[in-house]
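Checklist before submission:
- one chain only
- standard amino acids only
- sequence pasted in full

Submission:
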Amino acid sequence: MKRNFLAILFSFFYIFCFSQARVVINDNGYIVIDNSAFIVLDNSSANALTTLGTGGNIVSEDEADVIQWEINTNTGTYVIPWTTSSGVKIPLSINKTTSGVGGTAEFILSTWECATDMNAPWPAAVTNMNWPSTVDGSLAVADRFWHINALSYSAKPDITLIMNYNPAANELAGTNTLIETNLLAQRFNTVVGHWETYKLFGANDAANDRVTGIVVPSADFFEDWILVDNLVPLPIELSTFEVDCNQGEVTIGWITQSEINNDYFVVEKSFDAVNFFELTKVQGSGNSNIPNYYSAFDGNPSNGINYYRLKQVDFNGATNYHEITSTSCNLNGFTVDQLLLNNKTLNFNISTTLDEKIKVYFYDYRGRIISIKSQSIGSGNNSIKLSNLEISTGIYMLSIVGEFNSYATKLMNK
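Returned file contents:
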């Protein structure tokens, strides 16, 4: 009877205010907030909402069904005994460690299970479920949102959260691809308009169905939270990766906007954009939410096109590769031009200032050699022709290896 009575009570009153009093829920009693109702706790003490006996339950299950707690500048640990509509206890603990500035400030609190594994409905301030590219990360997220808003503070407080979740299939399983022991807290940054990939919070405590130690400083107080598989967010957000050949040396530079558990980078080099080898290692910044600038050098580039790519390595050894980029170096007057691939024949010209012996390799994108030709070239222009090539439509590679120079490029046969 207690559960039904309180559910009806809060369904019909838009605001129910407990002024300078306490709400005590005893022996597993229920309060159900429904129909966009508010419970207003006009008592800043941490014991203004407490449970006794076998505990208590408050059901929200909608962003608009909220507790408005007039905490003001008080500090302490505030516990909201959230419970799912199916009766699973998922309490939220807010340890308010600094006062903040705001004599009439309050916390606005709600939580709700999403209707589908694609995490709908979203909070009002959330515009996407991306991390932060165009890839939707909904299936790597527990199907529940938490709204924790410090309202009317001119300077927000520092808090530490403990977020409990429902481990049942309807929140973690279904079509989701997450691993429970990887869950950490993630928040939506309304300034940049995406979920923060560079800053995950807390420590996983899957044995007790919760994430603990979620430290939120006042300067970074955003209101909407999820629990995400910490292996899914991109380890780095790369904004640029550029290479440039100048006076016989290649300068390689890149910028990260954010990093998660980033141990180091490996700059890899290739002469054909297929077979790469390690050029150098560069130490990463670990965890960062500010731009970081990196550079490396290749003091021994080959003549012609040099290919480079970036491998990023996490602290746990996981690796991620980023796109290939290239630059052309003209060394010792060796250039290749007038490339024409047509009718199973490849024609090109080599201009050089040196006499040397070369080998010409022509192969497909899988590295299978189609033709090899050995030839001596001399100072000036040298016309080279490969005939009777067994090729079809697709991408092919040309590699020229000489005594003093080398060259490689991609070719498209249409």
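Reviewer check: Residues 2-229 form one domain.
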